[in-house]
């Protein structure tokens, strides 16, 4: 049995993320991944059972990283305005620090893998956010809305601004603190009772 090499495993994971972001899930073959990572195809199977296991493990790892980054300094007992501000700042920081990972997670969210893997992810993020939203509704700091409507108002504007900031085709838009505050004020206004 061959020994595990952390640098090879990391190279496989990084190249898999790059390939999925660039070519989609259909563009990820073990043969192409091995070549991109500079390992033999057999090496991949030391670390992952198959292609789906590779995607699952990367998703779990990225979910943990994203959760840790977005929950920094956040407490579900915070008042809604303060908590949402921290969420926005943390999400901007995560997306700008890890743009490739952000795009990977975005692709996961819109794939059949998301629903398939999400239940097994053992991620406290959703529970923390449920408590935060529930507390805000109880304190009458937030209008009660279906989760899809809440998320669309609370976070979709932020992610669109991040995309404008990262996209070269949008001229010289820079997501700075002033623009972030302007957008957040409008979002808070829309969500308050």
Automatic annotation (TrEMBL):
Record key words, sorted: DNA-binding
Residue intervals of the HTH tetR-type domain: 6-66
Please give the DNA-binding region boundaries: 29-48
- In the UniProt record, does the keyword DNA-binding occur? yes
Pfam families per UniProt: TetR_N
Give one GO term, molecular function aspect. DNA binding
Task: Report what the protein is called.
Answer: TetR family transcriptional regulator
